[in-house]
Amino acid sequence: PDRPLLFSPLRLRDLVLPNRVVISPMCQHAAEDGRATDWHLVHLGKFALGGAGLILTEGTAVSPHGRIGLKDLGLWSDAQVAPLARVVDFVHGQGGLIGVQLAHAGRKAGSHALWEGGHAFSQAELDAHGMRRLGPSPVAAGPGWTVPDALDEAGIAAVIEDFAAATRRAVAAGFDVVELHFGHGYLATSFLSPLANRRRDAFGGPRENRMRLPLAIAARVRAEWPAARPLFCRISAVDGAADSWDLDDSVALARALTSAGVDVVDVSSGGLSEETRRITVPRGLGFQVGYAGRIRQEAGVVTQAVGMIVDGPQAEDILRSGAADLVAVGRAALADPYWPRRAAEDLGLPPNYAGWPVRHG
Ligand code: FNR
């Protein structure tokens, strides 16, 4: 039989991923002033031992106002480079590849960790931490969320520069990939969605205008990021509500992102607001794979599928179906950091002890 697609390499610019398994970005709420800690070394390092083709860090804030929670990773200051470089060096030492997910939480900035309830900071909590919620328009993300400050032109320019500066720091830290977090209701999603973006200037109104800020960020980051290294972008393919961002919009966005120099579109969904959270598509195995498939087919872009991809045979079917070029695994990899090795075994590959960490193999 043919070699499983899941364990065939994928070349993106000058980077060759040894297999198609990507560890999905997952917030840990374990950083100190945005600096990676021992937790990140162990958490991300274990996936390198597990044989993933690429590991993505959690959403890493490009500015203090862009944090989901106070303990997010950040790359808004030079002091945050060395602690992340330590993680990158460890992963590289194990023959792994690692990317950083750059994020700005926008109007969903400032919330408690999920295990502390996940609720939004009050205005008093935002003030106490010197944080502001920023968005396209003064429309709150839902009950319990304060109304964000609408970004003016200078604010928009500053956000773009924050992404550029964070990208330069990602280069300094030695990352192999940058992924832009344009999904889940954070700053970029809020500009894309007509439910959150009520602007009447060049950044609001028709879809082309709503895409302007995300595309400007992508182009600016591409200019800072070495041409040899791939740029990923996670999007929410659909808001999940009536008259909101939909799959046709995402096909158009995927094309435009590719023109801006994005190499992989990572297809997630939802997260725009408390209201849409209740009405998004039912969750089941591979519940977002169809979105990746349509975007890949219609926009002709490289896609990464994510969402309840739980084992090797399922992942292999997704790749064979032509829906995606890469699969991202989140919770299943938390349960089993050696998920890629198990998947290889389940797909009938002989044990590749030479590819194991030398101390294990
Ligand atoms: C996430 N997810 C997520 N997504 C993202 O783009 N940036 C992030 O920082 C996070 N943080 C995060 C934390 C935790 C603990 C979980 C479980 C999830 C979403 C994640 O990347 C993935 O898209 C979903 O979990 C769906 O995939 P799985 O878990 O079904 O494989």
TrEMBL record:
GO terms for molecular function: FMN binding; NADP binding; NADPH dehydrogenase activity. Residues 6-347 form the NADH:flavin oxidoreductase/NADH oxidase N-terminal domain. Coiled coil: none annotated. Its cofactor is FMN. Keywords: Flavoprotein, FMN, NADP, Oxidoreductase. This is NADH:flavin oxidoreductase/NADH oxidase. It comes from Methylobacterium currus. The chain holds residues 39 to 399 of 429 of the full protein.
